[in-house]
Design brief:
Length: about 300
């Protein structure tokens, strides 16, 4: 079986674009050419790499497993096409992480990394692997340990969730001494149907008012709403402590302690880069003052 490297490059571009039209635009060819090359690659391999629908092209489990290798082949094709075997593109790292963790733990600590290493760092916000299905990545940070055999996992850091509001808000609104008092307040948190794998939602939701008045799937919106005095935000303590004006509400009654996990694709072929990414994640959580990460090897 002989596979055309250019076909593999087309496969990689379609997997990232999730659309035949967008992939053809990126490659600078007609979409029928892209479709023909993907069809030829699938015929050569004897398996489907994508499931097609009006919503786009989604990787099959086989396609997902081949994606890390396809990314390397695609990069190799580009280096050879440039005609210079010495000069190649900078290393590219892709990290998936929840929005709050990405914005407050990773983003503030990537400047020195980029300046010293010259890498291209791509941080993609995702609350779960399912929410970014088909996106190739070097490492992901999630709040629920995956059970898929296609990934390896490692404990990264613990976190705590609580209620936070400003002193002005608490002074101007009815007092809060027990959970039942929350019924008289605006709470800022996730929608009733949050993205998959948000364990704190399932645990804390029964304790909170029947109606969450301000709903968003973005943690930073919860934070900004609380800072503006719009209500009480349900948020991680490591984010809240960045804001001296936020005060913890009912710390003993409403609390959740969870775990962030580092997830690595089992079929990852860029292990040297992966080790660098994992080191960056570990150093970021330590620098942010979170609990110490696990020293165990990914399982």
């Amino acid at each position: 079986m002989r596979v055309d490297a250019e076909d593999v490059k087309y496969f990689h571009v379609v997997a990232e674009a999730k659309s035949l039209v967008r992939a053809s635009q990126e490659l600078g060819v007609d979409y029928t050419t892209v479709s023909r090359r993907i069809g030829r690659l699938e015929k050569t391999l004897g398996t489907r790499l994508f499931s097609r629908s009006t919503a786009g092209w989604k990787l099959t489990p086989t396609g997902e497993g081949l994606l890390p290798a396809a990314r390397m082949v695609s990069l190799g094709v580009e280096v050879f096409a440039d005609g210079d075997p010495i000069v190649s593109s900078p290393e590219e790292w892709t990290v998936l992480a929840p929005d709050g963790f990405a914005a407050t733990v990773l983003a503030p600590r990537c400047g020195r990394l980029i300046a010293e290493s010259g890498i291209i760092l791509r941080i993609v916000t995702a609350d779960s692997l399912a929410s970014r299905d088909g996106v190739s990545y070097d490492a992901a940070v999630v709040r629920t340990k995956p059970t898929s055999p296609r990934v390896r996992t490692q404990e990264l850091v613990t976190y705590e969730i609580g209620l936070y509001a400003t002193e002005d808000y608490l002074r101007e609104h009815p007092g809060i001494s027990r959970i039942e008092d929350l019924q008289h307040h605006v709470l800022c948190w996730y929608a009733e149907d949050p993205l998959a794998a948000v364990p704190d939602f399932a645990t804390l939701r029964p304790l909170l008012p029947n109606i969450i008045r301000l709903q968003s799937n973005n943690l930073l919106i919860h934070e900004e709403a609380a800072l503006a005095g719009a209500g009480i935000a349900v948020m991680p303590s490591y984010i809240a402590r960045r804001r001296p004006s936020l005060i913890r509400v009912l710390p003993s009654e409403v609390t959740y302690k969870g775990q962030y996990w580092t997830v690595l694709p089992a079929a990852q072929l860029r292990w040297e880069i992966t080790r660098k990414v994992v080191r960056f994640l570990r150093e970021a959580v330590l620098d942010a003052g979170l609990a110490t990460y696990s020293e165990e090897e990914p399982q």
